[in-house]
Structures are given as structure tokens and as C-alpha cells.
Amino acid sequence: MTDRRNPAARPAPVVVITGGTSGLGRALARELAARGAAVVLSGRSAQKAEEAASALGEARILGVGCDVRRAPEIDALWEAAVARFGRVDHWINNAGIGHAHRRLDDLDPEQVDAVLGTNLTGALTGARRALQGMLTQPGGGRIWLTEGLGSSRLQPAMAGIGVYGASKSAAGYAFRALAKEYRGTGVQIGFLRPGIMPTPVVLGGPATELPAATRQMAGILGDSAEDVARGFAPRILRARRNGRRLTWLTPARTASHLLTAPFRRRQPF
Ligand SMILES: NC(=O)c1ccc[n+]([C@@H]2O[C@H](COP(=O)([O-])OP(=O)(O)OC[C@H]3O[C@@H](n4cnc5c(N)ncnc54)[C@H](OP(=O)(O)O)[C@@H]3O)[C@@H](O)[C@H]2O)c1
């Protein structure tokens, strides 16, 4: 039994992060581990995942190769986490890719497949595996989705980023449905909405092709993945409610970034 008066006696929460080799995922791995969690981070290449884990310098971070487009690799990721740490308390579906800022007829079908396969099918396959494991382990668990442009039902569609937006919109819908399907089971669904961060997902794709004014605004409203992770990590570990959404770029933060823009260092978009 857990001794509530002595946090040191509580077992460390175990967190699996898909897409943990860079950007938000890697920063979350660091911040969660710093708060006592055991972390399994993953990415497409086993070598890169192992290097990312060892660069973070924490014994309780394991790096595992897992391409979320391949269900057997997701199974192996779950099994590696359980073999090393005994259970999984949080599974964060964070792996994501963008695409060039282009109209549909200029995108290769392979790019369309990769974006949907990673951001949508990959997140669902991850959630499915985590559900199977969490429904049968004592204490259940929590499955998170990293949202993105397209997730908000209030956001107007943006030209040039339709496939990415569709992947995030569809994944968001599916996870909102999961929150209803699994209500009361002990497995809870959560959402991370990280705002705008200068990471490879945007810098390698859309950002470099965006109009200068849009990039300038992204620089003003953006924050580093490290800052976002520092804000999210304690809230992830504290989350209790099914359907919880952690939003970084709230109206208050947007207003503050706009007001302080002349004095604040801009993010490099
Ligand atoms: N940056 C932003 O402004 C922003 C805003 C809102 C939401 N997001 C979302 O935040 C999440 C993290 O993105 P980020 O901004 O931190 O970008 P990032 O630094 O490019 O990170 C993306 C991560 O996904 C991994 N990944 C890509 N394809 C994968 C696959 N098929 N299987 C497994 N892992 C894969 C990458 O690892 P490998 O390359 O090692 O495979 C990397 O670790 C994404 O879901 C993104 O859509 C980003």
C-alpha cells in the first residue's frame, strides 16, 4: 500500500513517449524524469532513441526504436516498458510529422500517407495497445494525444497545411470519442495542446515556406519546446480528470506574448 505522507515511498510513475527523440517529446522526457518518473522515449531509429536517452543522462530513461506506423513495433515498445519498469502509467502519443506547405496536387502520395500514418493511425495504434495493457493492469492509466493545428474545432482551415490539419483533426475526434468509450474504466484520455514551437516538425516543413509575416507572428507567439515541457510535465503527472486538456497558448499567454513582444526574445522561425 502507498504511504501518502511519504512521497518517496510512492512508486515512480512510468511514462512512454512516442516521438521522444527531439522537440517536445525529448523535453518532456527530461522534465518528467526530473520529477521522478521513469521514462521510455522512442523514435523511428533505435540508435537515435538510445542516444537521446543517454544524452539526457538519467538512469531512469530508456530509449527504444519504434516506428508508430508499425503495430508490431508499438507492441514491442509496450513490452519493453513493462519489462524494464513493470507497468505504464502514461502513454503519450506525441510522434508527429509535418509536410511541405503545398497544395494537395503538389504533395507526393507517399507524403500524404506518412503524415496520416504517423499522426493519425500511429496515435490510434498506440492508444489501442496502451488500452489493452492499461485495462488489465491494476490502477489503469492515462493515454495522451499531442494535438496540433487542426485539432481545435474553432480554428478555420488553413491553406497549404490541409493534410497535417486533417490528421490532427481526425486524431482529436477519435481521442474525444475514446474519452467517452472508456469513461469509468480506470483508463483516462488526455490532450496536450503545445502552441507553437520551433522544432523540426515545423522548421523542416511548413515554416520555411510560410510568408514572412506568418513566420514573424510564429516567432512572437512561439515558445521553446523546453519551456512548454517544463509547464506541462507537473500537470501531466497531476492530471486526474478524464478528457483533461493542457493548453499552452491560452488567450492570456497570447495576449502577454503580444504585449511583451518588443522586449522578449523571439523564437527562430
Ligand atoms: N512544433 C510545433 O509548433 C507543434 C505545434 C503543435 C503540435 N505539435 C505536435 O507536437 C508533436 C511533437 O512535435 P515537435 O514539434 O516536438 O517536433 P519534432 O521535434 O520534429 O518531433 C517529432 C518526433 O516524432 C518522431 N517521429 C516522427 N515520425 C515518427 C514515426 N513514424 N514513428 C515514431 N516516431 C516518429 C521524431 O523522431 P524520429 O525522427 O527519431 O523518428 C521526433 O521525435 C507532434 O505531434 C507535432 O505535430 C507541434
Précis, in short:
By secondary structure, the chain is α/β, with parallel strands linked by helices.
Strand order, biggest sheet?
A: 3-2-1-4-5-6-7
Model regions low in confidence, pLDDT < 50 over at least 5 residues = none
Q: Which CATH first-tier class would you pick?
A: Alpha Beta
When the domains are counted, the total is 1
Order of helices and strands: EHEHEHEHEHEHHHEH
Strand segment count = 7
**How many angstroms separate the termini?**
49 Å
Structural class assignment? alpha/beta
- How would you characterize the largest beta sheet? 7 strands, parallel
CATH architecture tag: 3-Layer(aba) Sandwich
Bound small molecules, deduplicated: NADP nicotinamide-adenine-dinucleotide phosphate
As a whole number of angstroms, the C-alpha radius of gyration is 18 Å
Large-scale geometry? globular
According to CATH, the fold-level topology is Rossmann fold
How would you explain this protein's 3D organization?
By secondary structure, the protein is α/β, with parallel strands linked by helices. The protein has one domain: NAD(P)-binding Rossmann-like Domain (Rossmann fold, 3-Layer(aba) Sandwich). It is built from nine helices and seven strands, in the order E-H-E-H-E-H-E-H-E-H-E-H-H-H-E-H. It has a seven-stranded parallel sheet, sandwiched between helices. Helix 5 links the parallel strand 5 and strand 6. Helix 3 packs parallel to helix 4. The longest helix is centred in the middle third of the chain and has 28 residues. NADP nicotinamide-adenine-dinucleotide phosphate (NAP) binds next to helix 1, helix 4 and helix 6.
